[in-house]
Amino acid sequence: MRMKMTLNIAALVCFSLFAIAVAEDPYRFFTWNVTYGDIYPLGVRQQGILINGQFPGPDIHSVTNDNLIINVFNSLDQPFLLSWNGVQQRRNSFEDGVSGTTCPIPPGGNFTYILQVKDQIGSFYYFPSLSFHKAAGGFGGIRILSRPRIPVPFDDPAGDYTILIGDWYKLNHTDLKALLDSGRRLPFPDGVLINGRGSNGAYFNVEQGKTYRLRISNVGLENSLNFRIQNHKLKLVEVEGTHTLQTTYSSLDVHVGQSYSVLVTADQPAQDYYIVISTRFTSLVLTATGILRYANSAGPVSGPPPGGPTTEIDWSLNQARSIRTNLTASGPRPNPQGSYHYGLINTTRTIILSSSAGIVNGKQRYAINSVSYVAPDTPLKLADYFKIPGVFRAGSISDRPTGGGMYLDTSVMQTDYRAFVEFVFQNDEDIIQSYHLDGYSFFVVGMDGGQWSDASRNQYNLRDAVSRCTTQVYPKSWTAIYIPLDNVGMWNLRSEFWARQYLGQQFYMRVYTTSTSIRDEYPVPKNALLCGRASGRHTRPL
């Protein structure tokens, strides 16, 4: 009888382990080799950064909750990291791939990122985060599809295209970095690209009567771009992981660092049509074209490419305000996106951030609240985990603009886990700006011209503001966001203007809890690279 009971218990344990294994979220494996290679995006040979020989790099296709195992071999002659714009790295900022969280992959070395796209859907991208590598390529699209039983608020498209747009220089990334290191500003870009190609180099095939999804990401270095297709409408359906109200536009402003999904129906006579991108808010307008090619096309593109807005701010502001969350649609889970009533939650803290440009020690620098960020010799997250003193000081950046002169420091803002915080980006400069926060999506509750004040809250959208991870701030204007701080870690808040980011317009937000439970934060990865003052430390046992 005892033997029979033992066998039954053993069988039950085996069945339980089998059930756990079956229930585990799927794994997707990638092996990437990062190399230099000749590219000619604007007709001039340049040293590009390729992934598995591709420029841009390969797309990552995934489904909500998938585990992504990405083994990156660095065949460059410089340290290298990839970061994952919009992937929230729940409880795991160690994998974020920026200098404040992750040690660089040394030349000739490799590192395996272990990511989970936990409770996420939507369109994002990855990019190289160190030095000025982003100006040479190394970027690609990320798409996270809904799980099969989760309803999506539109029919499956006939095709699904990644469209990476951005401004581009003919100078190599090393020359651009040298300009910045010498204390100078970058010149105006030489052109704009669609999927790494200049005018008429990128084309997308469609069939008449069918509808296609275009995932558009601005992976450029500075400029906002307007996207449009000759004689076709764009139906917006998703913004950085949020299903939106399905508003139709003739063209769409995509600010640097942002991602959008639109549906386009091939409802015109069968021929070729221009896809156009052009710079916004610039005195010199750079333009590039691609081709929307119908099957059995009767002929090439005809007429001039359609024009778009150029310097009009109100046009763009009104469009931004019209982008709202579809409250009845499901997100990554079956429950409606509108079931989280962010507008009914009291904020626990208000943080006002103001950028500035200035000269420090004879060189051009940029700052937030007067602090121009300087990277330490050890990733902040590793210093925090191993309790290494002297690397950073929490609270080294103020909650409000100080009005003082610019200075250099390793700026880290201390915040509390599970706080509900209001951030205000105050832009007193005469250029448009774009900010991104790693590890989070936030609700863009308001934006307007002039100075923000307490009275500005009267115009906040507290019902269906879009939730995203990158927001623009118009010239001499403000943008306000709400953030539920539900993701412990060290998270980079940065300008998406890459020269400004490189020269100090960024900081790290330490979302802190005294808890050491893995329900709140994972320990350092077993395979973590250790550098700086973390060298020689031990990760956890295998």
From TrEMBL:
Pfam families: Cu-oxidase, Cu-oxidase_2, Cu-oxidase_3. SUPFAM superfamilies: Cupredoxins. Coiled coil: none annotated. Residues 34-147, 160-296, 377-514 form the Plastocyanin-like domain. Keywords: Glycoprotein, Signal. This is L-ascorbate oxidase homolog. It comes from Psophocarpus tetragonolobus. InterPro entries: Cu-oxidase-like_N, Cu-oxidase_2nd, Cu-oxidase_C, Cu-oxidase_fam, Cupredoxin, CuRO_1_AAO-like, CuRO_3_AO-like. Residues 1-23 form the signal peptide.
